[in-house]
Amino acid sequence: MNRIDRLTAILIQLQSQRIIRAQEIADRFEISLRTVYRDIRALEEAGIGYFLADGYRLPPVHFTPEEARAMLVSGKLVSQLTDASVQKYHQNALFKIKSVLKTEQQEMLNDLENRVAVLNPPNQQPDELHLEKIQQALLNCQVVEMDYFSPSSGQFTRRGIEPIGMVYYGDAWHIIAYCQLRQDYRDFRLDRMSKLDVTNQKYHLRDRLNLEQYLDRQSQMTDTVLVKVRFQSVVIRFVGQDRYRYGFVQEKEVEDGVEYWFLVSHIEHFARWLLMYGNGVTIISPPSLSDMMQKLVHELIRHYGDNND
Q1: pTM (2 d.p.)
Q2: What would the CATH number be for the domain defined by 225-308?
Q3: CATH 2.40.10 for the 131-221 domain, yes or no
Q4: DSSP 8-state assignment for residue 191
């Protein structure tokens, strides 16, 4: 990136929020703090200065071809990984962005539209995930009341929660919140929520963990086990992206296959996933995983053996 482009990008970043630290600019553009201060002085000499008046604006926004394509890809992801409330607003934003593109960029995006796809995840998101309501509650520190379905009991319970953050993992959106019913922090899947209402009741952030603190606490509390398994070449293609759902850490090629390392918090859950690969997977460690696999295999033999009698 040449200096003119960087100065323009820094100016846009300065307008994006009230306070920007010099280190944030340095990290974004991979430049030294000295270079940041020199660029800021250049902007100041141009009459802009460290602080921008509310009325100051750049000329109409122009997007590079790479930025325009990035917006198209993000739209594909939003269409599959969010709900109707977010999709509607994102679509409106894309229309506004496209309206300021050059004609050749618009034609390029239209041509690319049908050549990029995000396939539905295994657990397809329902039409209503309450994403817009949850964001409102997060911003305004409002208590959310909802019916939450528990797979273990098979029942809904009415709860009041104080949201502290949203996280997407395991093919699902989760809301991290302080549960007033359980008097502790809980991880709730949005696709298990029903009859959700954002109340007028407020809570104070200073009384709660923030999202980063919660995730740090969970990582320290989680009792994980290092698992090493070897997949034969004939089954590796079936593993695909699934390994990331089971604590995948690293891999290395070995003779006739690949050795994977996982950090696993629930051995039985992991063993049930391995069962589908049959004799195409070999357990290296720990012994407890081999014991669990034998137990599950014997259960299957007894089950199907009894059915054949």
Answers
A1: 0.55
A2: 3.30.70
A3: no
A4: G
